[in-house]
């Protein structure tokens, strides 16, 4: 298969790779990077592709392995990766562009919601958010650890209620 034919076949299949990249990375920019890395690896290793085999499956395998390799590299560097349930999958449309304005509006709403919490709930919540452990918060605020956990739980619940629109956009 010539390079032009290979490129043509990859272009036909590559549109279906973006949703898979989004499911793996949970971030539009990271998904675009993963897709680009995958297509680059596929093109540079096109001599390893056997004619007649499933090109789509080959590309999915490259993408999955690239993601795993990048993930392992980040873990070795002790980079924090958020795997909490707070991440939301955002449907991406092929021809849409992002201008980051929605992110600014969301951050403004989040900051307003956090600032509207009572001080007794906001302080432990923000300390936990900044990386303090429960026992460290309890020591610094001189309150029992159970109280710290309870206040953080209540703060989360109130924020969830105040920011309901972001969890259920339509």
Automatic annotation (TrEMBL):
Residues 109-159 form the RNA polymerase sigma factor 70 region 4 type domain. InterPro entries: RNA_pol_sigma-70-like, RNA_pol_sigma-70_dom, RNA_pol_sigma70_r2, RNA_pol_sigma70_r4_t2, RNA_pol_sigma_r2, RNA_pol_sigma_r3/r4-like, WH-like_DNA-bd_sf. One of its GO terms (molecular function) is DNA binding. SUPFAM superfamilies: Sigma2 domain of RNA polymerase sigma factors (SSF88946), Sigma3 and sigma4 domains of RNA polymerase sigma factors (SSF88659). Keywords: Sigma factor, Transcription, Transcription regulation. GO terms for biological process: DNA-templated transcription initiation. This is RNA polymerase sigma factor. Residues 16-73 form the RNA polymerase sigma-70 region domain. Belongs to the sigma-70 factor family. ECF subfamily. The keyword Transcription regulation applies.
């Amino acid at each position: 298969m010539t390079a032009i034919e290979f490129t043509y076949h990859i272009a036909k299949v590559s549109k279906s790779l973006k949703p898979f990249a989004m499911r793996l990375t949970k971030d539009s920019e990271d998904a675009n990077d993963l897709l680009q890395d995958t297509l680059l690896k596929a093109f540079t290793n096109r001599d390893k592709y056997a004619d007649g085999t499933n090109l789509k499956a080959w590309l999915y395998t490259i993408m999955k392995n690239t993601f795993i390799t990048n993930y392992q590299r980040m873990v070795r560097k002790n980079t924090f990766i958020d795997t909490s349930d707070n991440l939301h999958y955002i449907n991406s449309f092929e021809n849409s562009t992002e201008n980051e304005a929605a992110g600014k509006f969301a951050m403004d709403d989040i900051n307003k919601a956090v600032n509207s919490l009572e001080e007794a709930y906001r302080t432990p919540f923000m300390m936990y958010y900044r990386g303090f452990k429960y026992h460290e918060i309890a020591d610094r605020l001189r309150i029992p650890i159970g109280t710290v956990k309870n206040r953080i739980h209540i703060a989360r619940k109130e924020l969830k209620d105040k920011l309901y629109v972001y969890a259920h956009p339509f």
